[in-house]
Specification:
645 residues, disordered C terminus, transmembrane helix, globular, 60% helix, Na+/solute_symporter_sf, single chain
Amino acid sequence: MAGVYIRRHGSVFVDSSSPRSEVQSRNLQTPAAAALRWRSDSYQVNGPCKSLNQLGNIPRPAEPGVVVELTKLPHSCGAHDDDLQSSHHNQQGFISVISENRKSITFQNSNEPQSSTDLSWWYIFCLKCRQKEVGPGWEPGCWPKTCPHPYCPSFRHVARILALLITVTLCWGVVLAVMGSAAKPGGQLFSIAVLVVFAYLGGWVFRMLTLPALVGMLLVGIIYKNVGLIEVDEHYKEFVSILRKIALVVIFTRAGLDLDPVALKKLYCRVLFLALIPWCTEAAVIAVTVHYLLSLPWKFAILCGSIIAAVAPAVVVPCLFRLRTKGYGVAKGIPTLIIAVAGIDDAASVIAFGVGTKIIFGKNPVTYDLMLSPLSIAVGILYGVVWGFIVKYVPERTDPYVVPLRILMLTGGGLLAVLGFEIVHLEGAGPLAVIISSFTSIYFWTKQGWNIEDNPVATAFEIFWMIFEPILFGLTGTQIILNELDLAFVTAIVMCVVIAFVSRILITIIAASGSSLNFKEKLFIALSWMAKASVQAALGPAVLEVARSNNQDEEYSKTIVMVCIISILLTAPAGAIIVSLSGPKLLTKAKPSNEQWRRGPRPSIRDITLNSEDEDNGTSVSNDQGQECDGVKADCTAEVQSEKI
């Protein structure tokens, strides 16, 4: 072990060169600590023993304290059983936390009464928000005293935030020098920038409440608009439209990169069936309800249903990774199945969006547009396949700059597809081409040795999404004007969304019949597909933009945007809460292992580190630590997982 420390009790010295290490603890004045004994799968603590120095070979001068012996044990389940029977249950005075990935062990004598500060809600909240920094670093000598952990952020965190603020200030200075008054306080660009900043802060607050951050961003946009802090002029609506289209490229690129080619190859029939049948059902229910309850024409009702039916990976994926980290549903590949279906739903919504907008807003006869729609789909698929094939060979895979070049190639190809096909009046081909190109790229990259979870390009687009998420949802929230809303109208929208949600749950359970999933697992995957977020926030305002550019049917397009926003506000937080709470009750838990949880070492920023269930018993073991005990082992490969569904 690289380092050992005792929280609130002083320092510890370890000889890391031998399997039997001597640990010297200073400032432990509690007599009960002299007879401490603790045992886990990998380590055993005995005491008291001989006092040694840091190297373990020179006697240390006598000093008050307790010396305990740390012994590394062979991996076996018997050690864990003994620990549960003797050490943990009979000696409740000692709690241990092992974290191999952080190279540290924490020992604490719980018989010593904790201070009221450590037990306060403020301490727990700060500890949750600020994890202790690991790895080499530097901070001023006075920093730990003036800014103690966890009440204050670390110097590294403060320096990082300060660097970002300086960078933003420099960028604002450059834009001010170029754009002039538009970037000054009160100008359009300045107002948009402030909206994005506050949207990010609103998302952070909701994230601390374990709710989807996008809901907080959307609410900030609504408040910002109705308070009168922003009013986008006609001159800058095109700029806002371009920002939305860039966010659209990021959304669908991530959707394509999240698809697992191996799982889809093994289970393409089952996945397509579970994706398209519930999608078509929900789209049809939404179309019927909004037609009769909101008086939308059938063309707009069908377009609205095809947009609302998409599943939101931005809400589902973080919840699934929390559950997957604890082992729920992995034995049958349920997380992989849910993510794959979400990606296919997005692709279906994109196709329907392109065909629908072409028919509704096209100036040509309907027959001509119907004949042109398959061409638009074929062109989008062809573009995506060709571009993904090009990215396979260019840049060359052993090039030291392969990662940034692939990021630039995929981003540039996506932007060209979305913006270019719009110019030639094939609007639906652009988003479809983005999904297909990213999926084709990840298919070839996995053949070259990149795992889906070990994919730096996906990590880069996750960072891009961190930037464009507050932009997209903040600007989407500005479409809502509360004074213009009618209570009966909002109630009708809520009824439409609820009816469609219940219908999708029922049809999903029926469509999953014949698989190896039990009823609880079928219910869970049905609940996980209820959330709406990024696709609705991107495609809903896109319909309004097309309507404004063609100067027709703007009121109907505003109704579609309203349905999209209310569906996000209703289903995103409810979906996150339901999936997080129902997962442990509806899914079967498998024994965690490194290969099972992560096929590659990429520390995805969408993953939320959670401790195993042992933390409820006083011992917490990080999920990154290897567990080699015999027990229930789920299949780690996508092939075996897919065969079980």
